[in-house]
Design a protein that fits this description.
Layout (H helix, E strand, L loop, with lengths): L16 H26 L7 H4 L1 E7 L6 H16 L5 E4 L5 E6 L4 H15 L6 E6 L4 H27 L2 H25 L5 H32 L5 H33 L2 H36 L5
Antiparallel strand pairs: 1-3, 1-4, 2-3
Length: 310
């Protein structure tokens, strides 16, 4: 059967476009509600990490060279229990037994409790434990840089897609889908109370860059089918056919990428998981938006806005 083209059944994606639009809006609104609730409880819209709020850095020199797995399994739970902070960051100093433990801002009593716990549980010399405050003064600049980075990347993609497809409706629908993906991932950060640190910026830029791939493939197929069908083409049927023709490719690409990131999440250390989990959410969301949102947005713009937007 190789080399024999078989026309499969065309899936009516546009028939479900209103349901997809409503589902996306509900998810995004839930994220905003979560941020409002979090702000009322903590004063911050998201669970900002030490990169944004500052904290305490404790240097501990252990009696033995502890591996990263030992630190995660033995040291981090002790620190979390004392500080009440699940977002504990650890870093080994190469060539030494010294470990840097970063937590939320600790008062004098909590610092003493942490020192006593290190001495009691690991036999550490109290004189080899030092603590200092981490400034959160750069938080405003980091937030501003994050917004600018995502905005610049999005605008450049808008211009590129507009230039490539010679139709701003392709570009506008693709960018709206990217904004949708970013907002859904922000919803995940909000509802899961996942720590927002410097990896948040890298995560968002990665999602913006990756999510556009399947969308470009679908738009390419729509453009090809438009050329072959001519001006009398039924747009609804054409869009459904184009998405169906590229569906297998979109699913396989996203699925294989998801598996890779999932393995990294399972086998990686805490700092890697902090990046991998939101990426997995972004991959799933990007696949969904490419298949269910972008084509529908282009169809709505094409039928509602007419030829004046070219």
């Amino acid at each position: 059967f190789y080399g024999t083209k078989k026309d499969g059944k065309i899936i009516n994606f546009l028939g479900k476009k209103n349901i997809c639009f409503i589902l996306s809006i509900v998810i995004i609104v839930a994220g905003w509600a979560g941020m409002a609730l979090h702000k009322g409880q903590t004063g911050y819209v998201l669970n900002y990490g030490m990169d944004f709020t500052g904290g305490t850095s404790t240097n501990v020199t252990f009696n033995e060279d502890m591996s990263l797995d030992d630190i995660s399994a033995k040291v981090v739970p002790v620190v979390s229990k004392i500080t009440g902070d699940a977002d504990v960051q650890t870093q080994k100093v190469a060539g030494t037994n010294e470990v840097i433990i970063k937590t939320k801002t600790l008062d004098v009593e909590q610092r003493q409790q942490l020192e006593d716990a290190m001495v009691e549980n690991f036999g550490v010399d109290a004189e080899k434990i030092t603590a200092e405050s981490i400034s959160g003064a750069v938080s405003t600049e980091m937030k501003k840089d994050a917004v600018w980075a995502v905005t610049i990347a999005t605008v450049l993609m808008l211009l590129y897609i507009w230039f490539r497809f010679k139709d701003i409706r392709f570009a506008a629908s693709a960018i709206l889908a990217l904004v949708h993906d970013v907002l859904v991932v922000v919803t995940f950060y909000s509802l899961a109370k996942w720590s927002v640190g410097s990896t948040f910026i890298a995560c968002m830029l990665t999602i913006v860059g990756y999510s556009i791939n399947a969308t470009i493939v679908i738009f390419d197929r729509i453009r090809e089918n438009l050329k072959s069908a001519g001006k009398k083409a039924d747009l609804k049927e054409l869009v459904n056919m184009s998405i169906t023709q590229t569906l297998t490719r979109s699913i396989y690409t996203s699925f294989t990428t998801f598996i890779t990131i999932f393995v990294v999440f399972v086998m990686g250390v805490s700092s890697i998981r902090e990046f991998a989990l939101p990426i997995m959410v972004g991959i799933v969301c990007g696949a969904y938006s490419s298949v269910c949102i972008t084509g529908a947005l282009w169809y709505v713009m094409k039928t509602k806005l007419g030829k004046s937007t070219k």
